[in-house]
Amino acid sequence: MHAVPSIKGAARIMRGLQRNWAGYAPILHRRSALITDALPPVRPKPVVFPAMPPDAHLGGWTLLAPGQLLLSPTKSAPFINGEVAFVENRTEPPSRAYLKLWEALFRLGRWPVAGETCIDLGACPGGWTWVAASHGAQVTAIDRAPLAESIAALPNVTCRYESAFGLDPATCEPVDWLFSDIIAYPTRLLALAQRWIASGRAARIVMTIKFQGETDHDTAEVFAAIPGGRVLHLWHNKHELTFFWQRGA
Ligand SMILES: C[S@@+](CC[C@H](N)C(=O)[O-])C[C@H]1O[C@@H](n2cnc3c(N)ncnc32)[C@H](O)[C@@H]1O
Question: What is the pTM of this model?
Fold first, then answer.
């Protein structure tokens, strides 16, 4: 926390620490805009996926009062206020859910590639399956509802029409990626993730934890405490979180 008598003074403190700053202005918009103008410009370009996440330093700041600056030279997300803008593909994916998986994989700095295998649970209409298949991976898409025809017809996509909860991981070949975007109660999704982790059949998991009504913080904490796992709220998440897990991490 810094006492800042002037706009120039606020900018001077931040410039003295580093170049790149992202401001958040829930209040004091005009004063915050003037401070932003006094700082070096930070204008990220829309991301063309696949890409590695930015590694340039970025700090965050906000004004608590006209003369009170709260700042942090580092942030948990390397984007301005967590926002990731992609150059979208408006023709191939059958739903906009692909943006959520793009963002998850962009944060990981890793995505399915040719020679890798994926299981996509709750795959319909096929946005996530399209992401994995479009980079050459072999995808088994599982849903009780059918995928969009254009996705089901891809040569590296196999469709299985069944419940993801009835699938015994022990009967599956090991996969490089387990994806899940199933709409279900968080406790059910937790049990599903734990079952796959215990089976040793998935090297990595990316799973949406969907909330219905109240946020289930207790279950989110259990997800976050799984060794090798972490839970993030992505820019493209709505009333949901994304669970990442990697074997041996
Ligand atoms: C949000 S949609 C998935 C969107 C998808 N990821 C995409 O990119 O197009 C959730 C899906 O979960 C599926 N689902 C719900 N319960 C399921 C279950 N028990 N087994 C398999 N799929 C299930 C629904 O049929 C629905 O298609």
Answer: 0.94
Based on the fold, state whether residues 58 and 114 are members of the same structural domain: no
pLDDT at 56: 86
Q: How confident is the model at residue 249 (pLDDT cuts 50, 70, 90)?
A: confident
| Domain end marker among 51, 81, 111 | 81
| pLDDT at 5 > cutoff 90 | no
CATH of residue 149's domain is 3.40.50.150
Q: Which of 88, 101, 144, 209 to mutate to test the pocket of ligand 1 (most atoms within 8 A of CB)?
A: 144
- 180 is a domain residue: yes
The neighbour count for residue 214, using CB atoms within 10 Å, is: 7
Q: Which residues does ligand 1 sit against, CB inside 6 Å?
A: 95, 97-98, 121-128, 142-145, 163-165, 181-184
Q: Does residue 164 contact residue 192 with C-beta atoms inside 8 Å? A: yes
Task: Name the residue range of residue 153's domain.
Answer: 98-246
Compute the average pLDDT of residues 22-29. 96
Active site residue 210: yes
Tally the domains of the chain: 2
Answer yes or no: is 92 within a domain: no
**pLDDT tens track for 139-193:** 999 999 999 999 999 999 999 999 999 999 999 999 999 999 999 999 999 999 9
